[in-house]
Hints:
With about 160 residues, the chain is an alpha+beta fold. The protein is about 35% helix and about 20% strand. It is built from five helices and four strands; from the N terminus they run E-H-H-H-E-H-H-E-E. It has helices at about 10-15, 20, 35-50, 75-90, 105-120, and strands at about 1-10, 70-75, 125-130, 135-140. Strands 2-1-4-3 form a four-stranded antiparallel β-sheet. The longest helix has 16 residues, at about 105-120. The chain is globular.
Amino acid sequence: MHHHGYLWVGEKARFDTESLRRPAASLAEPTPTSPPEVLERYRRAVAEFPVTDVPPIETALWLLKPVKLIRGTWEKPKDAADWLGRRLSEHAPRFASDQDSDSARLALRVASAVDRLGRGGDVSLGYYLRRPHFLSLAVVTCSPNRATPDAGCPAR
């Protein structure tokens, strides 16, 4: 078992575009009589989900994304959580909420991540930055992942 780290910073409106965040396999295939917006959402999911860097709707689905999006790989949960903590510290000055940037609160998030990763879980954190941006951080357990055990490791 190992862990992959992912980071995304972008416009909140892009993050909110469901067709970029959900694989086509999770959507009902449109019929010839489907409304145009359903056809377009499905078309975008087929074309863009596999290649976009926008975070998937489910954390484990990062494993279906291109290997180039992996920001780091660690064998030990503590090392993965340390990476997460460094990213949080880097971005904390831009958090929209002073409460979210509290160092004690961030330390608790990192400690919780060590525990969760140690038990084979995934960690996903999201923070509003100064408008209109959003920060998404994820550490995904790989080989195997509990939520998607059939997903292969993207880095192998």
